[in-house]
Write a structure and sequence with these properties.
Residues 171-293 form the PH domain. The protein is α+β, with helices and mostly antiparallel strands and 293 residues long. It is 44% helix and 21% strand.
Length: 293
């Protein structure tokens, strides 16, 4: 923040800043100042240090700070935008100059990855602690703390997929909480005058990426695009949606225990959905059930 973000306002370096980066500090750094502020207050650190003599109390620190740690979600949601901007401007003289002054071996992007790495590291540490504390005092709280951190990571992961949805007319933020997302084989069976569709439906499934919100189920098609020689970035082009208030569900489909049905409007439209495993199917069914009830 001092060696790069502040330097963007340094009048001596202004002429080195590439035009694509003008007024884009918030995109490049996201809410890094907020994350810095949280840790700089050292409340969390002090709470953790107080557990050195009583490690069984550690879990409480995480449970107590659950809300605070959600600032990482915001950071991770912005990360794809930040990376795209970095790919555009990362090799500019401005960044080279900042790096030289700091005498850093690594360039800025390595540091911008740190918050993402940190939020995924906490759960590994909690898992290790659980291994060492079977059936002792504080085990239940450790399990709860681990679940809390895994929940944050799941939200981070889900929201990073969600920002790649294209072609949806409405605002996804109005669809309620994003509960699940993932890829499935889907067959359709429509009653109304689409006999052709029905015949085709028996054979080749469509690959669809589903996003389950409290108010809506979105069906998207995953597209992978190569971004100028870099790793593939996925985007999800919107195909159709079902209002959760109008759908029904059939948990078992004859002949395949990985399939379930979602139907619409009294079985006028039926979607047969095949998960990659029975466990995954059951997780989705239980989430859908919660929404429907």
């Amino acid at each position: 923040l001092q060696g790069y973000a502040s330097e963007m306002d340094n009048p001596n370096l202004v002429h080195l800043i590439p035009s694509a980066l003008q007024n884009k500090k918030e995109i490049l750094f996201g809410n890094l100042p907020e994350i810095y502020e949280f840790h700089n207050r050292q409340i969390f650190l002090k709470e953790i240090e107080n557990c050195i003599e009583n490690p069984e109390l550690l879990a409480r620190c995480f449970l107590k700070r659950k809300e605070d740690l959600q600032i990482y979600e915001k950071y991770c949601q912005n990360k794809p935008r930040s990376e795209a901007l970095w790919r555009q401007c990362g090799d500019s003289i401005f960044f080279q100059e900042c790096q030289r002054k700091l005498d850093h071996k690594l360039s800025l992007d390595a540091y911008l990855l740190k918050p993402v790495q940190r939020i995924t590291k906490y759960q590994l540490l909690l898992k290790e602690m659980l291994k060492c504390s079977k059936n002792s005092e504080g085990t239940a709280e450790l399990e709860e703390a681990l679940a809390t951190m895994l929940d944050i990571i799941k939200s981070v992961n889900d929201s990073m997929h969600q920002i790649a949805i294209t072609g949806y007319e409405g605002d996804v933020n109005e669809l309620g909480k994003l509960l699940m997302q993932g890829s499935f084989n889907v067959w359709t069976d429509h009653k109304k005058g689409h006999n052709k569709v029905k015949d085709l439906a028996r054979f080749k499934p469509m690959q669809r990426h589903l996003f389950l919100y409290t108010k809506m189920l979105l069906f998207c098609k995953k597209r992978e695009e190569n971004t100028d020689g870099h790793e593939k970035t996925a985007s999800y082009s919107f195909k159709n949606s079902l209002k959760m208030s109008t759908v029904g569900i059939t948990e078992n489909v004859k002949g395949d225990n990985k399939k379930f049905e979602i139907w619409y409007n009294g079985r006028e439209e039926v979607y047969i959905i095949q998960a990659s495993s029975v466990e995954l199917k059951n997780t989705w069914i239980s989430e859908i059930r919660k929404v429907l009830t």
